[in-house]
Fold:
Amino acid sequence: MTREEKAKYIDDLTADLSANNVIYLTDTADLTVEVVNGLRRKAFNANVSMRVVKNTLLLKAMDRVESKDFAELKNVLSGPTSIMFSEVGNAPAKLIKDFRKKIDKPILKGAWIDESVYVGDNQLSFLSEIKSKEELIGEIITILQSPAKNVVSGLKGAGSKLSGILKTLEERA
Structure:
């Protein structure tokens, strides 16, 4: 890789790191090309962008991003590293967890999700259960609609009871 290619690569990585709020670092060492390509296919289908990176170039890109603090993630950069970007916080974790049903890799080195840092493979289960922004908004809307539905159904029920009582009294008279 020439100096110009490295500079371009670092610039691209810096742009990706700046633009994304969900970043996963994984270890895909010892996986065959066929297996890695299968992982890439699954990542693509799950709207997760994945690529293998050189640690030294990733470190330089991390240093260039001023708006995010990657200090804790820099410590996990040893050995082969793949980086995953996503719009949804739990998508890469679910992808890794699903993929590991067949093979014991990739291993989660660390993740940066909306200003929070998670280090270690032991965080994978927790990260896969994090609710996405859309799921949380849906739950909040459901909770807010529930009391309104109760009031409306109560009014409908009370109105029909009242009309029934009036009808009965009218028939008696």
Observations:
- The chain has seven helices and five strands.
- The beta strands are 22-27, 48-53, 81-86, 107-113, 116-119.
